[in-house]
# Entry
Amino acid sequence: MVKEDKLQLLRDILLIDDREVAQAINRRIETITDTIERREKLSEKVDPIIEERLKLFVEEIPLSLGPVITDTLKKQIAESKDQVVEALYPIMGKMIKRYIQSEIELLSENMNRKVNDTFSVVAVKRKFRALFTGVKESDLMLSELDAPNVNEVFVIQKGSGILLGNLSHTATVDKDMISGMLTAIKSFVEDAFEGGGQDLEAINYELYSIHIQNFHTYYIAVVISGTYTKSFENKLENRLLKLSKSLSPRISTLTKEAIDGVLIEFFKKWRVQKK
Amino acid sequence: MEGTKKIVLLGQFGVGKTSLLRRFMTNVFEVDYKTTLGVQIKKKEITLPSGKKLSMIIWDLEGFSSVSNTRTSYLIGSDGFIYVFDLTRPVTYFNLREEIDYIEKNYPNVCLKIIGNKNDLKDSSSIEEYLANKNLKVHGFCSAKTGEGVEEIFRHIAFKIGSNE
# Structure
């Protein structure tokens, strides 16, 4: 073997692997370059990663950005109260205006009906009442429009909460359960606040009031709707005192039906509203 | 003729008063424990052997550590008490003697029934013996979970009160 051949052989032995590696790297670089430079190939690789990150971002928005947004909004509203009021005013104004308009229409309709009824017994009575009491007829008319109504009457045994009699036109909740719960509420209030053996006398809830009048072994609860005025309360108290005079001596001997009958008789002239 | 009577469920926390009442009213048992706050009131009508109807107004009171701590205004005017204890928790019947003495002293005319609940979890014989040694008679063992004996307890007290009329 000549010297030149020997040198070639040695070069082959030393450099052949490097050449293959270099060729493989070249091929890889070409593939990567191709992937990066060609949009569809790049998106094929990158899109799933971006989608995953986006999904995660959307999921985390309420946690990460929620408090920031709330704080920013609060700050913005606090700093720009006038602008907020300015923006809401027309909307709120319209709503209030519409509500008042409809209420006034209703009121005027009722007033007209009453004025047109000039010669009815009620109207003549009202005129006399205005004459003798000094209260304007228009004021009397207004008070008649939202006059209190007796909706329900319960005669309930003290302590046990057992319903002794009732006058009602509703059939919603069982009357025995109402009287039990009323007694439980009454007992709770009377126990909870140290008032020295005082009795609960009224419960108010938005459009209704419950007037409670206590007697020795029982109490009477009256559910009232409309404007519950002091004068009506007085009238009702007197009526219930009269009722108790009739009931008390025989309450332990009367059946529920008998007490119901007494209540119907007693509240015959009162407006017991039907629902 | 119909009559209405007030029955009060008494017993310590978690003995199953509300579960017993629910089983009796709707024949349902709920695994979730929700403590009763204040009082809840239910009504059930029962026909007595005489044919008369009796309306039971059942007051389910919140649990207590001792009956003497219960709001007395909830107890007055009662016709019957059902005192419930838990067979699996001795703390609910260890002081039963004192509890019953208190009730009998303060409400002598009220019909009282002592009931052991949760008999699906524990055998009642040893507890019955333990209470008998304390001169206490248990009127019934039941399980609100399985429903065993529940109806009988309420019927039993209704019949007893109804027959006293």
Observations:
- Strands of chain A lie at 149-157, 163-168, 202-205, 208-214, 218-225.
- The radius of gyration of chain A is 43 Å.
- Chain A touches chain B through 19 residues (CB under 8 Å).
